[in-house]
Design a protein that fits this description.
Elements lengths: L1 E7 L2 E8 L2 E5 L1 E3 L12 H6 L5 E3 L1 H6 L3 H6 L3 H5 L5 E3 L3 H6 L4 E4 L2 E5 L6 E4 L1 H11 L3 E3 L11 H32 L30 E6 L5 H14 L3 E4 L8 H11 L8 E4 L5 H9 L4 E3 L2 H7 L2 E3 L5 E3 L19 H5 L2 H10 L2 H28 L4
Parallel strand pairs: 4-14, 5-6, 6-10, 10-11, 11-12, 12-13, 13-14
Antiparallel strand pairs: 1-2, 2-3, 7-8, 8-9, 15-16
Helix pairs in contact: 6-7, 7-8, 11-14, 13-14
Amino acid sequence: MFTLLKQSPLGRRGVLRTAHGDIQTPFFLPVATAGAMKGISLPELLELQSQVLLCNTYHLHIAPGEDIVEAAGGLHNFLQWPKPILTDSGGFQVFSLKSIRSITDAGVQFQNHRNGSPLFIGPKESTTIQHKLGADIIMCFDECPPSTAPRADQMKAVDRTLRWAEECKSVHEKLKAERSAARTPKTPRMPKTPKNSDSLESLESSESSASPLLFGIVQGGLERDLREKCANELIAIGFDGYAVGGLAVGETESEMLSVLDVVCPLLPENQARYLMGVGEIHQLREAAKRGIDMADCVSPMREARHGNVWLSNGEKLRINRSEYKTDHSPIDQDSPTHFGRDNLKSYLHHLLRLGERYGETIACMQNMGVMLDSMRKLREQIEKTDAL
């Protein structure tokens, strides 16, 4: 499932194998919350050579519902996305609904944020939903308090996260066994990747029958001993990969990195390590140095929609500022995408000031292109750097 090819001072270089193709690490996961990117299309994301997509379990459960997605042949066929998909557990979204949810050891009772109807998600429900969605990588349901929450809250969250992780794995193994038993010799087995991985041809639903990888999530806030406890006990349960959660939600950057300094050395070398919710390029490079293989965040797209444009040289432009109204130079002449090379700063300024959606597309393609290209360059740099 994961092959570690090299370790260097800049990070680890590996391959994560999934039912819908191999992913070269380290890598970044673009976030398609409800199955779509805000600002760009999935074919455009493929143009940027994204290796993978992240979808949100909570939002897809709310609409259209996992049963509809399953009937469509799983997320890959529903979205017409040919590459790997990761689904989060829904835990972060559920726990962010502070005013309309209550937590018990069984799970979380909450209200649908759209219509107020009562809903419940626990480890069994989250795991079952993700299996029905047909993702390649699924996440354990965890309790995710802010990193700066009091120690007492962190202790409760770690204990629940560990209990729920055990239940998630039990449900996962049961669903895997049921899926395996349902297969017959007459059922055609699809290749791991489509013949043309960049095409959007209809993907047969039997592809989604392959069992997903299950990742555990290390919680514990900024408490070193709680992070150590959570990591060690998750490893004892045994998962296909391990994530570090509960960061980028209030702590300083140095505090975030100090958590990685504690957790990463504890995690198995031969399994993938996932930093959840962190998306500044310089932060990802620092995380990679500490042993992180993958990360996700909405920041490239969110910043683009608000006029913060990332450049290939590491700078950022606040393109809505008046100085760009008459700046007729290219947005980024070294951009990894033609959207940045072929469009003028003055034009993007004009579009975003008017609220034109095409302006969001240009900015989003630029930011995501820079993000994905930075990870590609990091992989190349690791390959050229002496191994540890």
